[in-house]
Automatic annotation (TrEMBL):
Required cofactor names: (R)-lipoate
Cofactor descriptive note: Binds 1 lipoyl cofactor covalently.
Keyword annotations of the record: Lipoyl
Pfam families: GCV_H
InterPro entries recorded: 2-oxoA_DH_lipoyl-BS, Biotin_lipoyl, GCV_H, GCV_H/Fam206, GCV_H_sub, Single_hybrid_motif
UniProt name for this protein: Glycine cleavage system H protein
Quaternary structure, from the entry: The glycine cleavage system is composed of four proteins: P, T, L and H.
Role description: The glycine cleavage system catalyzes the degradation of glycine. The H protein shuttles the methylamine group of glycine from the P protein to the T protein.
Domain Lipoyl-binding: 24-106
Family annotation (HAMAP family): GcvH (MF_00272)
NCBIfam families per record: gcvH, PRK01202.1
Naturally occurring in which organism (per UniProt): Chromobacterium aquaticum
Modified residues (N6-lipoyllysine): 65
Spans traversing the lipid bilayer: none
């Protein structure tokens, strides 16, 4: 059974979002996504400063099973990437809601977060 933290927001493509105190949003993939992927061996992240549209491809996760796109859940500008994933992509498996985060974004419209799924809705979405 997947862990689905209540304080996060979720999207159908299995990314999670955490609103930070400074108004930025941290994005990663859910525990459910990393379970489906299996052992992650490579992560490609967006460039800092990139302006991404909602649902635009932001990167790629490669595992022993498959490659999967990472999508940007809200439009905005990339503020930071998790450079640790370049050397240790397995962090996305071991700590998907912690050290395995992917990137931070400054949302173009913070109100867009209100339209995303909460933990209960995501749990229903994945049949948990």
């Amino acid at each position: 059974m997947s862990n689905i933290p209540a304080e996060l927001k979720y999207v159908e493509s299995h990314e999670w979002l955490r609103l930070e105190a400074d108004g930025s949003v941290t994005v990663g993939i859910t525990e459910h996504a990393q379970e489906l992927l299996g052992d992650i061996v490579f992560v490609e992240l967006p460039k800092v400063g990139a302006k991404l549209a909602k649902e635009e491809q932001a990167g790629v996760v490669e595992s022993v099973k498959a490659a999967s796109d990472i999508y940007c859940p809200v439009a905005g500008e990339v503020l930071a990437i998790n450079e640790e994933l370049e050397a240790e992509p397995e962090l996305a498996n071991s700590e998907p809601y912690g050290a395995g985060w992917f990137f931070k974004i400054k949302p173009a419209n913070p109100a867009d977060l209100d339209a995303l799924m909460d933990a209960a809705a995501y749990s229903k979405e994945i049949g948990a």
